[in-house]
Automatic annotation (TrEMBL):
Single GO molecular function: ATP binding
Protein name: Serine/threonine-protein kinase RIO2
Lineage: Eukaryota, Metazoa, Ecdysozoa, Arthropoda, Hexapoda
Family of the protein in this entry: Belongs to the protein kinase superfamily. RIO-type Ser/Thr kinase family.
Main localization of the protein described in the UniProt heading: cytoplasm
Biological process annotations from GO: maturation of SSU-rRNA
Protein location: Cytoplasm
Region (Disordered) residue spans: 326-345
Alphabetized UniProt keyword annotations: ATP-binding, Cytoplasm, Kinase, Magnesium, Metal-binding, Nucleotide-binding, Phosphoprotein, Ribosome biogenesis, Serine/threonine-protein kinase, Transferase
Catalysis performed (reactions): L-threonyl-[protein] + ATP = O-phospho-L-threonyl-[protein] + ADP + H(+); L-seryl-[protein] + ATP = O-phospho-L-seryl-[protein] + ADP + H(+)
GO (cellular component) term, any one: preribosome, small subunit precursor
E.C. numbers: 2.7.11.1
Regions of compositional bias (Acidic residues) in chain numbering: 326-340
Cofactor(s) this protein cannot do without: Mg(2+)
Residues of the full protein shown: 1 to 378 of 500
Organism: Parnassius apollo
Amino acid sequence: MGKLDVAILRYLTAEDFRVLTAVEMGMKNHELVPGSLVASIANLRHGGVHKLMKELCKHRLLTYERGKHYDGYRLTNAGYDYLALKALTNRKVIASFGNQIGVGKESNIYTVADEDRNPLCLKLHRLGRTCFRNVKDKRDYHAHRNRASWLYLSRISATKEFAYMKALHDRGFPVPRPIDFNRHCVVMELVQGGPLTHVTSVPDPEALYDELMNLIVRLGNCGVIHGDFNEFNIMLDDEGRPIIIDFPQMVSTNHPNAELYFDRDVKCVREFFKKRFAYESDLYPKFEDLERDDEMDAEIACSGYKRIKMIDDELLQEMGIGLQVSDDEESQPECDEATEEERKAANYNEEDLAALRKQVEESILNDEKKLEIEKLNA
Ligand code: ADP
Ligand code: MG
């Protein structure tokens, strides 16, 4: 953790990128991806994939592991970071890397800059990290399963965050301007300021309190609840205006527990203002007061977030996770079909190969796609 090893971005080639993408795609249905599978879906004209994989292992972007029934490759954290950062660099969204400025519960935050040296914020989602610790003594099948899942969960979290940030920004909510995302990484405007939790006093607590409560209501009227509306996810910019961040956990006001989440967000603000600014008010919003005037929740469900979700739905269902992510060991499902899964890995057929090859090509095309920033922020 900590510093990103970005030097690697310069000396790895397009062929390396292709091999890593092939392993990434292979990991959708294999715990460990057999080298022969990587070789056949990477679709490199001149071959030599095994040599490339060996080099990628040296750089710790891949690991080669012995499984119970077959051996194969696995993408590491660093390998996944590399894929996303390389794609964002190729798209010219980011051109240089700065310091780590935050470690959240499930993310690492860095400053980066574009080609014109404008500072930006890069958020790397790291879900499911805590799972690995707990699975050491379990069967290796189980361990691999968890290790493969972080990749999907982190990607879904980032995709969801970007979709919400974009929808909120489009509606004029005070959120960082979303710039682009790739895999588990989101690039956004860097807020000049700090989280509310670092603020010891404000000129007008009542005005800020009202503004925050109004935001909760405006969100609710759009059909969404932030779900983690606290002093760590509310920033104050240099002019003292609140900027809301951190959206992967947002839920629809149609969620069965919506009222509970709504009340919890309201309570967070009330308690913080009481503790920090000695400010209390009898006025606070209630769930039943919401007047729906927008369908942001439905819009998000139709966006790219859903496309990603569909691709990985089967896997998520298999893991019994759905979209509510938990790192609680007890909630991890038991998987007994290890031999079945492994047989699948050993005997992939032509049809599987063709599908995977297509996914590799599509992924690489998408990663090379020039970003239409103007269009994104229109
Ligand atoms: P997590 O989901 O891990 O809680 P957050 O999105 O809340 O991650 O970010 C963690 C911290 O990083 C924040 O409390 C804030 O200090 C900093 N941060 C996040 N986004 C930005 C941003 N756009 N500009 C500046 N700082 C940010
Ligand atoms: Mg946070």
